[in-house]
Amino acid sequence: MKKLSIILLSLLIILASCRDEKPSSSVVSNDAAQDKAESPMVFNCVLNDMKFNADEAKATVFRTNEQIDSIVISASQAGVTMKSFVYIFEGVGNYPFKNNDQNQGIARGELLQTEDGKAKSFYSIDGAVYISYFNLEKKILSGTFESSYFYKGNEMPETFDATEGSFNNLPITIVVNE
Questions:
Q1: To the nearest 10°, the Cα dihedral for 22, 23, 29, 30?
Q2: Residue 86: which H helix or E strand, with range?
Q3: Helix, strand or coil for residue 17?
Q4: In degrees, to the nearest 5, what angle opens at C-alpha 87 toward C-alphas 81 and 90?
Q5: Are strands 56-64 and 158-177 parallel, antiparallel or unpaired?
Q6: What is the pTM of this model?
Q7: Are the C-beta atoms of residues 95 and 86 closer than 8 Å to each other?
């Protein structure tokens, strides 16, 4: 009985010393065998039944020491800028535009439309971003997304729906928070 108590106490100490941390690995992928660095950068989707092919796209990784705090994916084309914010990064996976059980934002989307020098901000009401490839060593990010954006102005509410969204080989900029 004494040996069983010692074994159980040892297991309890080992389990208590384990910590649940965000990934700090620089390579996280569900298809790491494919060398994505040789493919061109692409960010596209169907935005309200029209093709959106970004002229410019990138990902910014914010981190403290080795821990990733958040990721911002952004793309622009002819007066429209789309952004996805991933606040709780846990590696390759799906990040819905909602809060988790602790009421922390997991991710969200934003769309900025500029016409005649006037800007309108649309905010996500539904959607998700799926990160399928993340490599800090090569500084590239790939995945897919879908989202719905909403703007409430003085007139009728306006919406944008982004479907069939994909991004491949987005260059990553790393910002280290002190």
A1: -50
A2: strand 80-86
A3: helix
A4: 120
A5: parallel
A6: 0.78
A7: yes
- How many residues comprise the chain? 178
Task: Give the per-residue pLDDT at 137.
Answer: 92
| pLDDT number for residue 156 | 65
- Cα three-residue angle 93-95-100, rounded to 5 degrees: 120
Cα(30)–Cα(35) distance, rounded to whole angstroms?
Answer: 12
147 and 163 Cβ atoms separated by less than 8 Å: no
Q: State both tokens at 89.
A: 């990064």
User: If you write DSSP's letter for every residue of 42-57 in order, what string do you get?
Assistant: EEEEEETTEEEE-SEE
Q: Whole-angstrom Cα distance, residue 7 to residue 5?
A: 5
DSSP calls for 121-144: EEEEEEEEEEEEEEETTTTEEEEE
Q: What is the largest CA-CA distance in the chain?
A: 80
Question: Above 70 in pLDDT, residue 9?
Answer: no
pLDDT value at residue 52: 93
CA–CA dist 170, 18 (Å, integer): 34
The domains of the chain are located at 24-177
Separation of alpha carbons 82 and 84, rounded Å:
7
**Cα(85)–Cα(60) distance, integer angstroms:** 10
Q: How would residue 21 be classed by pLDDT, with cut points 50, 70 and 90?
A: very low
